[in-house]
Amino acid sequence: MAFSRSILTLLISTSIITGCGGSSDSAPTPAVPDNTLPVTACSQPLEWSTVTGSDNLEFLLETSYQVNQPGAIITKLTNKDSSGLVFKWQQMAGTALSLANNSSPILNFTPSNTGEYQFKVTISGPGIDINQLITINVTNAQQISLSVNADHQVVEGNGVSVRLASINGQMPTNVKWCAYSDNLISLDLTKTERPLFIAPIVNKDSIVSLRATAELNGQTLTDDVHILITNEAGITSPYFDEPVARTYVYKPNSSYAAILPKCVYSNKLDNSCRINQLPLIGQQTSSPSIANVMDRVVVSHDWMGKNFEQFLQQQDPNSDFITLLQSVTAIIISYDVRPSFYWVVTGAIYLDPDNLWLTAAERDTINEAPDYRSNFGNDLQFLMPWRYVKNNQYAYASYPYETRTNRSVADFTPRLSSLLYHELAHANDFFPRSTHSTLQGPTLLEDFNRRSSSNALVSDQLAIRFPLQSSEMYSLGTVSFKGQTANDTQKSYLPSDITNFFSQDNASDYYNYSSNREDAAMLFEEAFMSYRYNMLRDVAVTDKPENATGSNITVEWGQRGRIGDANIKIRAQYVIDEIMPEVASQNLINSLPNPLQLTPGKSWTENLVVNPTGASSPQKVSQSTEIKALEDRPLELSGEQHR
């Protein structure tokens, strides 16, 4: 997400940050690409075919469209930029395509068959109502082609990522990039297959195109990818003071359609909106339907709202999420949100859509810029990885970006469920449903300040009644999660020191030490993931080799299902009683199994299979490809899924 470094400073210094972006007075800062260098200009000019329509509309077409190669159509008004206009694309003829980005001036697609394809674009806005058709012809070059995904629109100053796809499971080599642009573009090529850059500031809608050149089996291949950089109105918000993506209300007929985007995700947000403008969902109704919730969803792409709605329809049998969503004003799902967070200034939760995609085309629309906290704690000598496990296997699959694949709602449910339990715990910590009828306003922020000053938040009372004891872990949390520079003592800590600090205290995870707010949210998340899904969270202290992976880090100490520790269960039960009184907390707590010990001296990967005696068993995999898949699985470190 695009926010300024000044906001990061405010986040780190404030004492009322909730983690997960839940500060009362500030929003997260963006990931700024590292290792950026100016990219060379392409030697060949980029050619477009221009088709002029009526109503000052023209289409920019590529000179040819090929089977299985990404293509784009750009539409623009000759007398006006696209800001303030609404675009909708529909396919009218040709083999059905996956149009994951159909609400933008630029349409991207990958045809699988030859022939004619026809599209209709509808453009609406003040004094504008345009409907026009455009037809293209797709041919088959009958040769291997390079594919860079995906052509898309971004606002000026926003982060951009594109990705080179593998070909028949093989990644091209010797990848080089050049740019077609009137502006100087600097690329972060830390991963040459995934360039990152910041969109330049433009005085009119402009196209930046990159060309990839790579080799495969002795052939030199090329492909172009096109980014439409849109000129936007000046920024006035003290909160969102760097560009945010264009978003819109998922349900255009929502009674909150006029107020939602400018209250929750706008560069014009000057002050918190009043409760009488945008109340909590639970202030509108104490028995919300999925339709009530979807009226509060703001997206950058239609598929994000559609998939979220499917999740609520199919994967919330106990109405946990519908119940917890009463304590938010809105749900924002945008390609530039990373990581997810809750923010009391708006009363909304912001979800990283990486937890929601179903198709490769949908995944292509998400900005891959890394979490801005990625380098925090680099000077420390330990790692604390985590994972959810069920039946001695990962509870969720891993999907390498290089492999273009689809998945089901059930496939992403474990990740999204854990995320929602966590972020909605923050919302219900700040504004439990028991408080909804007594909120005075005029803004939620003012109610938060009143509740916080009297230690009335659930997390405040948790810290008073059942405090964590390790000052060392709290201090280390400011390094790993808030970016504070490690001192010499912290730099000297070995994994054995961290084991001594952490294992003797009553936190379920390292991230509990980010703040009191995080402490409550982690307890709630882990308890419900065990109770509803029989998924247990592993947490460990390991060494920190260079280029750490699951197979080369060694467990110093670790537990599976630490939430089942007797002293931690007491703390979890308090949070559950306050946040989710509808659930019989004693039954939930009694269902939590005793923790299992991971085996010291073995790798994180080798500790995936654990038997009830605590002894690690050999992996239940014999095929080298399966073992390699486990070794290559990205390592997840404490706090990475949340902000």
Key structural traits:
643 residues; alpha+beta; Immunoglobulin-like; 3 domains; 5-stranded mixed β-sheet; 5-stranded antiparallel β-sheet; 17 helices; 28 strands; 25% helix; globular; disordered N terminus
Broad shape: globular
**CA radius of gyration:** 25 Å
Summing up helix and strand content along with how strands pair, one would put the structural category as alpha+beta
Number of helices: 17
Strands of the widest sheet, in order across it, are 19-20-21-23-22
Estimate the strand proportion: 15-25%
Q: What integer is the average pLDDT?
A: 91
How widely separated are the two ends?
12 Å
Poorly predicted tracts of residues: 1-26, 614-627
Can you tell me the number of structural domains?
3
Q: Tell how many strands the DSSP assignment holds.
A: 28
Oligomer state equals single chain
Largest sheet: 5 strands, mixed
Helix content: 10-25%
Polypeptide structure, described:
The protein has 643 residues and is an alpha+beta fold. The protein folds into 3 domains: 36-230, Immunoglobulin-like; 236-364, no CATH class; 386-406 and 457-632, no CATH class. Helix content is 25%, strand content 22%. The strands form 8 sheets. It has a 5-stranded mixed β-sheet. Strand 8 and strand 9 (128-139) form a beta hairpin. Helix 10 (458-465) packs across helix 14 (516-533) and helix 14 (516-533) crosses helix 15 (566-579). The longest helix has 22 residues, at 409-430. It is globular, with a radius of gyration of 25 Å. The N and C termini lie close together (12 Å).
